[in-house]
Amino acid sequence: MKRNILILLLFLPLALIAEANGEFEFLHNASFSFHGGIPYIRAHIASYASGVVFENVSSFDCNGRSIEAKSIMVKPKSFSPAEVRQKIILQELSLNEQRDYSKTAEKWKKSLGEEVELYVRGALFSINKSTVDNREYFIALKRLFADQEAESKLKTLRELYPDKPITSFQVMQSVSHSEIEVTVDNDKKYNCSDLLEVYPENGLSAAGVSFPKGHYFLTVSEGERVDLSVDAAVDSLIERILPGEMFLSAPLETLKAQAIAARTDIFMQLGKRHLNEPWHICSEVHCQKIIWNGRIQDKFKEAVAQTAGMVITHNGNQVARAPYCSSAGGRTEDVRNVWFTAEKPYLSGVWDGEKPLKLDLSKERDLKKFLETDYGEDNLPMNKRHRWRVVIPQEEIDSLVNSYKKIGTLTEIKALARGVSGRIYKAEFIGKSSSFVMYGELNIRKLLNNMFSSAFISTRTEEGWVFEGMGWGHGVGMSQMGAVSLGKKGKKFDYILKRYYPGVEIIKLY
Ligand SMILES: [Zn+2]
Question: How far is the CA of 337 from the centre of ligand 1 (A)?
Fold first, then answer.
């Protein structure tokens, strides 16, 4: 039952290498299979408790042997987890910094008194005649950390460098192994190593949910969990991602732009996530939400089919990051001001309208003027977040702010730094007894009861704290409401994407 598999990676940094000795090892690496010119990747569908029963199995492979079955009950018997270490990342390097990273590395070394190195994540891979590159370059601590040790190191570093994207990436040392007990049709028992491959001819079903014909994997993980994943054509996954990201009545060209953004995200993340699990992507927001239940509407399928294989690239063949948010409010934000990443020209803030304005929204005075206008592609009647006003009573805001740090009655929120869209990324919260500084637009929004965006001006009034602002979300990349508006005006998908990701190319991989 094994299909012909081509490993397409031309180059893999050490962190991604797992030799393809047998199927299970193969599952644990960044490469993917290829059927009829179309790339297939593995997506996690769901986790079940030990003893889960799968119906309509048809047949499955266990230790290289094919066994016929109507139903199987699956129980983990043993599990030894993958050995994983953490690589601590200090900063991302821009295109310019990559050319001469030694200066940046030297600065970090001096500042920390620790050895640092250039760390490359991602790979250069080829699909049909195209070569694409999803590598990213970072300065990282040289030594590897165990999980708990990494956590405390991250905490210390984040306190020292609150405006740096200090994070950690998993580095695989060895893969996991397991024994799985399978009871076939309430009768015969089999012990299978590491995984079962299931080939249902009709809908495989478990816990009342059924899944279409396909090539499925059953594996086990920590906590006696049984995991179901599937080897699926990338575009069939995008069909199931789209409905969670955009409504059916959106213009087709808008859906096409969204489909390309979703596909780009998959290729950007390929080989970077879930390294210690036998799938490339999960079905949750962590990767992209995949809706497994129900039939896919034809319009979503059409949007995916008409853009088959298309992804967004920049600087030649480099796969872009393609973030999006619900509503930018008329001006998108520079990626650096939101996630403190390296500079990315295609993710710099743009005016989301016909003509740019002569305003500097990082200045409160200009932002105030801007909030009084209705400027912005996403100014649609259905968009309630283009401009907004939120009131938080004094008592409530005191409890929100003091739950982070005791500062007494809040008297002032000082915007210490705003991005090009007016989004605050550094704010001082001043109370009667003390104060604190908070970095990051998301942290600031979360602290303020999940404020729609941090592009706001706040005033303390008798009524309470009044927040007047614009947009919903981080503001980087595509404004989905803006994309809907452009689609309604008859703009094509490539126009829409190039508005929000300036200077990119759209290429067709397959
Ligand atoms: Zn994920």
Answer: 24
